[in-house]
Amino acid sequence: MNTANKLIEILTLEKIDENLYRGHQMQEAGKRVFGGQVLAQAIEAATDTVDSDRHMHSCHAYFILPGDTSLPIIYSVDITRDGGSFSTRRVKAIQNGADIFVLAASFQLTQAGLDHQIEMPKVPMPEGLASDYEIAKKFSSLIPEYMHRMLIEKPIEFKPVEIPDFLIPIKSEPRQNIWMRYKGDLPNDPRVHKKILAYASDYNLLITALRPHEVTLEEVQLASLDHAMWFHRDFRIDEWLLYALESPSSSNARGFTRGNIFDMSGNLVASVVQEGLLRKKKNKK
Prior knowledge:
Blueprint: H1 3-10, E1 14-17, E2 20-23, H2 35-48, E3 54-63, E4 73-82, E5 86-95, E6 98-109, H3 132-138, E7 156-160, E8 175-182, H4 190-201, H5 205-210, E9 220-231, E10 241-251, E11 254-263, E12 268-280
Antiparallel strand pairs: 1-2, 2-4, 3-6, 3-9, 4-5, 5-6, 7-8, 8-10, 9-12, 10-11, 11-12
Helix pairs in contact: 2-4
């Protein structure tokens, strides 16, 4: 099974009771659960409890404890409110009897209203760009062991616009633009596209906050602390989307990053904000 199909399987939950779900995961022994996976699975659980004519327009999450890849995750959904236009859900992700993640999500009926947006950055289109995987393969002999995960294919293809500086960090502006696309075909179901975009959105955020600091990934401890998304317009994640990222601030061992996501026609389809742990490791003597 290829990685794209495997992702769909992992993000399809097992319903074990009313408003209670079990999520399985990529078996990566000795590694923490990827935050985007927990986020997408929690969205799937919340979505399953909402009428199909209501679509998620925003979600806000906190990562509390690292997940264990050797165990399933239980998702408990609280039916907070169903109003005339909006529905609200709260989700807890549980392992070993402890909450490892919490999510609040809001769903809305499609409604007409005022419409405006910012412009998409003027960047090269993805067709002429190399993917991060292709770049990593090209320089595989130079990549240290702690970065070998870059040589594993992902279910999402990422094509950076700016030259990656993962081998020799260069001090630069805390901004980057990355094209991304799911490696497969998906049904015409906006709920599916939203949960996969949520999964993909957890990539590249904290890396953006590192760009001004000339540090390698081995020198810092990174971990997502919270994550919020807003969905503005319809899109397809199996078509190219531009992730325009910037990190306005880093302080007190935390990095703050936000991103706007555009389709190839320049429509702003989603926005993301994340704060994460960004702490320099102590030198070993």
